[in-house]
Specification:
The complex is a heterodimer of chains A (612) and B (360). With 612 residues, chain A is of the alpha+beta class. Chain A contains 15 helices and 24 strands. In chain A, α9 packs across α10. Classes of the chains: A alpha+beta (612), B alpha/beta (360). Chains A and B meet through α14 and α15 of A and α1 and α2 of B.
Chain lengths: 612, 360
């Protein structure tokens, strides 16, 4: 026997399941805590994608319970459900999915997903997975018990029965597996779901932890994310093998119409040009194109002027929603966002969103918290190896008023959230933990970071100026009354009204009211002076328990039920002053503080401020 | 000294103006002569240096100004309600401690309250004695052929400053105007910076040999010491010389005796002895007597340069001496004469210098 024949005896096909059994780490099942997280992640990603496609606001329930040494993991959603034919393959066949061959932004891409969880459950506890699903209120729910045949990568249905389920539609998966439940770390089911909730503010997610503790991440908006849709490949991202494969299997009979129908950004003129440049007949059959000719075609595509790939296939989360999501989980002083326009790497459109949140109850002296997202999926592992982290480290944060001792991640009360959306996120590995350092993507992230950095710098310098002003007012308001009191005491004279002086010092709008009583009548005088350095236009309200007489100048009088609002519209240039007056009976009249409407609160002395 | 009633009126006028400004909606402020070397001028009548026309404004517009005027108001309150009303007094240090209870008006350190008392003197054209504020006794002494009468709280004392005192001399009280000169046999007053040199001259009997009154300045002299020197010079007509170390700081001691100090130029006509002459140690002495020296420090050099732009040192004599010293880069102490023997200063240096100056 020849050596080759000898060796061939040992060669046999290994099943996909066997392969993954030996390579758990690339699927994200390499440690006990991570196995649970990955299972939840895959199931939740599926639920969110399904709900989004069906236009349903997601309601997702996750429960982790102890079962002896193992854990029972339940994930239930209100999604559209799964039709009978598909259930076994969706859950119990690896690499089965609807998205692998589709160029569209979605959370799951490869379709390894939840079936890896099923396999892991089977390998560690020998238990089958129970799936309950219902596709409509009038349809019965099906309950399945499934395992994977690890030799053939085919689903095995142990049982299927029709059950009653009170949900109108949805899917519930129950798996039992070895694992370990952690809570406190960011890399935990809690941490994962919290981050999911931030970028999916339209979802309501509840988590029941093994100790019975219930965490609910409430929905903060009823607005569904913008739709993303499928696009055809763009020639820039095409590789030779892929092109040859497409040409072999296409139904089109002519090369020109093949190009027109199979690629985005390619019209009749471009198709014609490419054929001409490659010296090929546009009418020839695509399947007849040789290897060498295909190479010429690919080269020709680089020479013609192509439009960029269509960009509306991507769905940014949007400033409003992402802000709502963040503010739900953190108390913040300041949030800025930057949504970059769509760019392209190797023919794949991608889009970067950057959010910077500052202050509130964030830790002042710790490293900035980095939240990484790819197609709305939180990335928990391998932070140090991710393009997002690298972009953050590349930015010189000192320029934007943050410390960055020794370079690297900035220090301060800051959350940096970066979301990369693409039809094809270039991950560094199959476990989808980190985005690869594609120069175009790193550049876009850096530009987004710099934009929010500039806004942070502007905010901080404005805040400094304001706080200095505030600090001064606090001191002035403490020092001057004491001084006025002391002066009056030494001189044995009346107490002083220091408001006019305070208003002048602070450059404020000053309202001062003096009352003088005579013959049972109270004469009220309001002096309004504009000590600011700009013209002021505002409304002044005097709410008195009775309607005033002799109002000068005339005011609008609005009955309030328990009193009267006297309203003057006032406009004063810088340095100008005006006097208002009216008369009320002394007996039984009560006043409240004058109210200024339409001026910033910190610029007004001697009156309450509303609606600034 | 002014009586309490007129002092009270002056102080009330000051706080009254602050009150009125408040009442009229004017941001309260006071203006006070700028107390820097750029704002002192020679007054040819009194032949002393006084504040010029530059004013600086203290206003409640700034946090610092507001705090300073708050403290001033409290201080005036203390002077009127405690000192004048009850005929009591406090030392400068006591005032600093009294302010402990003044909350935001509390003084940060004693120099702050000292300065504010000086401000009040300037603003009211009074002296701190009028406010019943006194300094700590600083222990400066005189020794020499002079008999004085001091009225104390326990009656009048008649003291001869050679015969009735120990080797430490007669201690100058803080209120020198309670001292009358009854008799003397003095031809010269020597004001001496250091205690060591003061004791050397007493030990060597210089006071007897040259009929001189030896005044110990104890560094930068207190007001009482300066006032006493002025009175010895003007009331008794005795010439005054000032004997200090040969460094920039000591020249300022001489300047405060003979020209007036920048800090209290408002009192120059009361404290300054324009006729006082500088005896030494002069930079030229360092060369002439080949004295042991120290190198000038950076601060010394800076102080010398600052003196070159100080109007009080603008005369030719000082220009020459200071420029020489900068060239030498050296300074010498009074006690450096001891290197030539303990009697050298009384046998050689002083007689030489005094006859050079035409005083013996």
């Amino acid at each position: 026997m020849e050596i080759a024949e000898e060796l061939a005896k040992n060669q046999k096909a290994i099943s996909v399941a066997e392969f993954f059994e030996k390579n758990r780490q690339i699927l994200g099942f390499d440690s006990a805590p991570r196995a649970l997280i990955t299972t939840v992640k895959e199931a939740v990603d599926n639920s969110l994608d399904a709900c989004e496609e069906a236009g349903i606001l997601p309601d997702i329930f996750v429960q982790i319970a102890r079962r002896g040494d193992a854990f029972r993991v339940i994930i239930e959603d209100n999604g559209p459900g799964i039709v009978d034919d598909e259930v076994p393959r969706v859950f119990a066949k690896l690499l089965y999915g609807s998205r692998f061959h589709v160029l569209k932004q979605s959370r799951g891409q490869q379709g390894i997903g939840i079936s890896a969880g099923v396999l892991y459950s089977q390998l560690t506890t020998g238990k089958s997975t129970v799936v309950t699903t219902k596709i409509g209120p009038s349809r019965p729910a099906g309950k399945w018990e499934l395992t994977i045949n690890t030799a053939t990568n085919d689903p095995e249905v142990l049982s299927k029965e029709v059950v009653d389920w009170d949900r109108p539609h949805g899917t519930r998966v129950e798996l039992e597996m070895e694992g370990s439940y952690v809570r406190s770390r960011r890399q935990s089911i809690y941490g994962y779901l919290k981050n999911v909730a931030i970028v999916n503010p339209h979802a309501r997610i509840s988590l029941v932890e093994p100790d019975g503790n219930v965490e609910t991440f409430e929905r903060v908006t009823d607005q569904m994310p913008q739709d993303s849709y499928e696009i055809k490949p763009h020639p820039w991202g095409m590789e030779l093998g892929g092109l040859i494969k497409m040409m072999r299997y296409t139904e089109k009979k002519k090369l020109k119409s093949f190009f027109q129908s199979s690629f985005s950004s390619v019209g009749g003129i471009i198709a014609q040009d490419v054929c001409k440049l490659s010296d090929l007949d546009p009418e020839m059959a695509p399947s007849k194109v040789t290897h060498a000719e295909a190479k010429r075609l690919l080269a020709a595509f680089k020479e013609v002027r192509l439009k960029s790939p269509p960009t509306d296939c991507l769905s940014p989360i949007g400033e409003k929603l992402i802000r709502a999501g963040l503010e739900k989980e953190y108390r913040l002083d300041f949030v800025v966002t930057s949504t970059r326009s769509v760019s392209v790497y190797s023919g794949n459109p991608f889009l970067v969103e950057v959010i910077l949140a500052y202050g509130g109850n964030l830790k002042k002296d710790g490293k900035a918290e980095i939240l990484r997202f790819a197609n709305r999926v939180p990335l928990l592992y391998q932070q140090g190896g991710c393009a997002i982290t690298h972009a953050i480290e590349n930015v010189s944060w000192k320029l934007y008023s943050l410390n960055q001792p020794g370079g690297g991640i900035p220090i301060g009360p800051v959350v940096l959230l970066v979301h990369v959306a693409s039809t094809n996120i270039p991950f560094t590995s199959e476990s989808k933990d980190a985005i690869a350092d594609v120069p175009e993507i790193v550049d876009e992230i850096e530009l987004g970071l710099k934009e929010v950095g500039r806004k942070l710098r502007a905010y901080l310098s404005r805040k400094n100026a304001l706080s200095e002003r505030k600090e001064k007012e606090v001191i002035i308001r403490k020092v001057l009354p004491k001084m006025a009191q002391k002066l009056a005491q030494i001189l044995e004279r009346d107490d002083l009204d220091i408001n006019p002086v305070v208003a002048k010092i602070m450059g404020n709008l000053m309202v001062s009211r003096t009352l003088s009583r005579e013959n049972g009548q109270t004469f009220v005088k309001l002096v309004v002076a504009n000590y600011t350095d700009a013209a002021c236009k505002f409304k002044l309200h005097e709410t008195v328990s009775v309607e005033a007489g002799s109002i000068e100048p005339s005011a609008r009088v609005i009955p309030l039920g328990d009193g009267y609002d006297h309203l003057w519209k006032i406009s004063l240039k810088s340095g100008e002053k005006t006097t208002l007056s009216y008369v009320v009976p002394t007996e039984g009249t009560s006043f409240s503080d004058p109210v200024v409407e339409g001026q910033p609160e910190e610029l007004v002395t001697g009156a309450r401020v509303v609606g600034s | 000294m002014k009586d309490s009633i007129s002092t009270r009126k002056h102080l009330l006028g000051l706080v009254g103006s602050l009150y009125d400004q408040f009442e009229n909606g004017v941001v309260p402020q006071i203006s006070i002569p700028t107390r820097t070397k750029n704002n002192i001028e020679y007054d040819p009548n009194d032949k002393v240096w006084v504040y010029g026309k530059q004013k600086s404004v203290r206003s409640v517009k700034t946090v610092r100004g507001a705090k300073s005027l708050l403290k001033a108001s409290y201080l005036v309150g203390l002077l009127i309600d405690e000192h004048l009303k009850h005929d009591r007094g406090s030392t400068l240090r006591e005032i600093y401690y009294i302010s402990e209870n003044w909350d935001m008006a509390k003084f940060g350190e004693q120099s702050e309250s000292d300065r504010l008392v000086e401000d009040l003197e300037i603003l009211t054209e009074l002296q701190r004695e009028d406010f019943h504020v006194r300094p700590e006794e600083d222990g400066a002494t005189i020794f020499g052929p002079l008999e004085i009468k001091e009225s104390t709280r326990r009656g009048e004392r008649r003291i001869h400053c050679q015969e009735d005192v120990g080797e430490a001399g007669y201690q100058i009280p803080f209120n020198v105007d309670n001292v009358k000169f009854s008799d003397h046999d003095a031809k010269l007053v020597i004001a001496i910076e250091t205690g060591g040199m003061h004791a050397r001259l007493i030990e060597n009997g210089f006071d007897q040999e040259y009929n001189s009154v030896l005044v110990h300045l104890k560094g930068q002299p207190a007001r009482s010491t300066r006032r006493l020197i002025k009175r010895l010079n003007e009331e008794l007509g005795i010439p005054v010389v000032v004997f200090t170390d040969g460094d920039p700081w000591s020249y300022r001691i001489y300047a405060s005796v003979a020209y007036g100090s920048i800090k209290s130029a408002h009192l120059s006509s009361y404290l300054v002895t324009p006729a006082a002459q500088f005896l030494g140690v002069q930079p030229t002495d360092i060369v002439d007597y080949d004295l042991s020296t120290d190198k000038l420090t950076d601060q010394d050099l800076q102080a010398l340069r600052s003196e070159l732009t100080d109007p009080r040192f603008s005369g030719d004599y000082w220009k020459e001496q200071i420029q020489l010293q900068i060239k030498l880069m050296k300074k010498a102490e009074q006690q450096a004469f001891a290197g030539k023997g303990l009697d050298f200063v009384t046998r050689e240096y002083l007689p030489n210098r005094l006859s050079e100056m035409g005083l013996i």
